[in-house]
């Protein structure tokens, strides 16, 4: 990154941090100075942040991260009372707040240290988003596009102030997940663009670390594995069609996916034991498809034969997953999980979940205004331009 670019991106970072923090801090509504207890003194935005506060408090009191659920994680007696339940929240997001609070307690009262850590960290994560946005846009287009993209971030209302944004006192993992997802894609793109094998593998490893961080933060982390896998399979199909078999993509994607699983395995083991989780099934599936992809390249089989065969097998697999989507058989459980990703109704699919306000479907007007009309239309224009540019570049370089 050039010095000028660094200064401009740094200014965008400060602008996001100012807009998502300053007004909440100066309004005085985020803190009750007369109180002494953590939950009474520091106000958070919404029920999820307060549950995260509960997990932080219990961690500090007991020295162990509580209520992660699953086979070994334990249940929260206050959830699903009187039977107990679990929010299933992996520890990374909350443990970062614990670590930051412990550090700040060297300079202030411990209650204030943990309160300010919980209120401020999500705003910091939201501001850091400008860095991967800059690099992704620069790799796709050029430096100017990267700077413009970084400066669009502080113009998005939903990112600065919404219940799923990065507002100060919103102690939830949304801005953290957004940052990690962007870092995953950024490092994967760097890996695929890097010609030096060692550097490419290092970038892929960084992408895997980001995937692992998501797994150790979000109960629905399987979706980042699915996004990377879908990209890899589509790219391999395009390569088969254009007769450009490239081991580079296989190496980068498999390093990212498997390293993400390996690093986060202790958390998965605590929650689910030694079982075939989606976070493992997806990398294994990509491995099988990669083997077929490389074999087809080695045998130089015409795409008129290979692609219809792949689509036929894919159709059979999808049909199988659709038919067993409601199965209760124990041996089909891993496949049912994959089926739910493909044919399910997403993260908020259960009837109970749909009673939550944030799970309701946005109409088009709310969607547009969440981003702002200008940014919304600019986003679609940028997507169209990017799609056309990629198709044009592929047609110019193809040899078929």
Write a brief structural summary.
This protein has 400 residues and is mostly helical. The protein is 69% helix and 0% strand.
Description:
There is one protein chain. This protein folds into four domains: 1-171, no CATH class; 173-301; 302-360, no CATH class; 369-400. With 400 residues, the protein is mostly helical. The protein is built from 17 helices and no strands. The longest helix is centred in the middle third of the chain and has 26 residues, at 247-272. The protein starts with a helix and ends with a helix. It is 69% helix and 0% strand. Helix 9 runs antiparallel to helix 10 (197-215). It has helices at 3-27, 38-41, 47-62, 92-104, 110-128, 130-140, 143-152, 157-161, 174-193, 197-215, 222-242, 247-272, 278-299, 303-323, 333-343, 364-371, 373-397.
Percent in strands: under 5%
* Overall geometry: globular
Give the low-pLDDT segments: none
* Succession of helices and strands: HHHHHHHHHHHHHHHHH
Count every helix, treating DSSP H or I runs of 4 or more residues as helices: 17
Give the overall average pLDDT: 89
- The N- to C-terminal Cα distance equals 37 Å
Domains (count): 4
Q: What helical percentage do the residues reach?
A: 55-70%
Total number of β-strand segments? 0
The chain-level structural class is: mainly alpha
Largest sheet: none
Radius of gyration: 23 Å
């Amino acid at each position: 990154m050039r010095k000028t670019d660094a200064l401009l991106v740094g200014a965008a970072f400060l602008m996001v941090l100012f807009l998502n923090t300053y007004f909440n801090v100066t309004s005085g509504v985020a803190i009750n100075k007369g109180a002494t207890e953590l939950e009474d003194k520091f106000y958070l935005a919404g029920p999820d942040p307060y549950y995260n506060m509960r997990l932080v408090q219990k961690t500090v009191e007991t020295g162990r991260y509580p209520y992660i659920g699953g086979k070994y994680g334990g249940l929260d007696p206050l959830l699903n009372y009187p039977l107990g339940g679990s929010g299933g929240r992996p520890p990374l997001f909350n443990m970062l707040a614990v670590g930051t609070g412990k550090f700040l307690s060297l300079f202030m009262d411990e209650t204030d240290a943990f309160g300010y850590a919980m209120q401020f960290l999500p705003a910091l994560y939201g501001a850091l988003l400008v860095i991967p946005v800059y690099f992704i846009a620069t790799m796709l287009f050029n430096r100017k596009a990267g700077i413009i993209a970084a400066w669009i971030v502080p113009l998005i209302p939903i990112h600065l102030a919404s219940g799923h944004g990065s507002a100060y006192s919103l102690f939830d993992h949304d801005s953290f997940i957004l940052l990690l997802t962007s870092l995953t894609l950024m490092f994967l793109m760097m890996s695929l663009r890097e010609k030096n094998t060692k550097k490419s593998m290092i970038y892929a490893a960084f992408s895997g670390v980001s995937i692992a961080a998501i797994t150790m933060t979000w109960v629905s982390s399987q979706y980042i594995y699915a996004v990377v896998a879908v990209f890899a399979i589509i790219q391999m199909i395009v390569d088969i069609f254009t007769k450009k078999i490239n081991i580079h993509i296989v190496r980068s994607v498999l390093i990212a996916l498997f390293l993400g699983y390996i690093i986060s395995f202790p958390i998965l083991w605590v929650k689910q034991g030694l079982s075939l989780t989606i976070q493992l099934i997806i990398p294994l599936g990509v491995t099988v498809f990669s083997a077929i992809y490389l074999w087809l390249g080695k045998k130089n089989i015409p795409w008129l034969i290979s692609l219809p065969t792949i689509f036929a097998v894919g159709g059979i697999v999808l049909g199988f997953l659709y038919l067993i989507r409601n199965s209760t058989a124990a041996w089909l459980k891993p496949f049912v999980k994959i089926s739910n990703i493909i044919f399910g109704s997403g993260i908020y699919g259960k009837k109970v979940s749909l009673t939550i306000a944030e799970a309701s479907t946005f109409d088009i007007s709310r969607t547009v205004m969440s981003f702002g009309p200008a940014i919304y239309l600019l986003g679609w224009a940028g997507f169209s331009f990017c799609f056309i540019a990629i198709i044009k570049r592929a047609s110019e370089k193809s040899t078929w």
